[in-house]
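Researcher: Structure prediction, please.
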Amino acid sequence: MKRKVAIVTGGGSGLGFAIAEKFVQQGIDTIIAGRNEQKLNEAKNKLGELCHTQPCDVTDLKSLPQFIQQIVDKFGQIDILVNNAGINMKKEFTDVTDEDFQQVIMTNVSSVFTLSREVVKQMLKQENGCIINISSMAAQYGIPKVIAYSASKTAIDGMTRAMAVELSPKGIRVNAIAPGFIYSDMTAKALDSDPERKAKVFGRTPMGIMGQAADIGEAAYFLASDSAKYITGVILPVDGGNSVGF
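Model: Predicted structure follows.
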């Protein structure tokens, strides 16, 4: 059987790297895309021959059709798209400029739409495919000082459902993952420097621990696999119960 082909945006580090790592381990040809070529090459060195790099600035919308066409020309198919690339911006509500807001929307929403549209054109020819968007707890409940990010991730949830309803009859499943508080050196440092926020995070997370990036990789692989062949339009929290915690 021919190997599946996946694209993971923002695949050079963090959650994107963890998703790419899981895909590669499962024998999927995985293209990691991002702006930082050095970071992409370092990730490829760790992930091995099934990992392929393709530099891409997702905010350059006009370049995305050609970006996807290059992958189709090289691999002949696209089975999985993970829209993971994104940015956050922490500012007081009244300090957020129009430019700030638009930058987050462009990166987190507009690029997801454009990339998905171009990939779907190929998936329709194949009559199958799987798209996974990355949502956030910021779409599950209100978080202060991240107004643009909250708006963008809430839009992702709506897009996921609308895409699923329109595309699933044509063989393309669309789901999203909403990560909770996932461990990284950066998040650990941020929480350790803010005891009140740290207490709040763990106080409303029933499992009482932070997740690992690999947990998101496992969820993404499940949603992309045949084990999830009857699942579409779902926003899957991977959060230790945070979204339902009190």
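Model: The domain at 5-183+212-236 is CATH 3.40.50.720 (Rossmann fold).
Researcher: Thanks, that helps.
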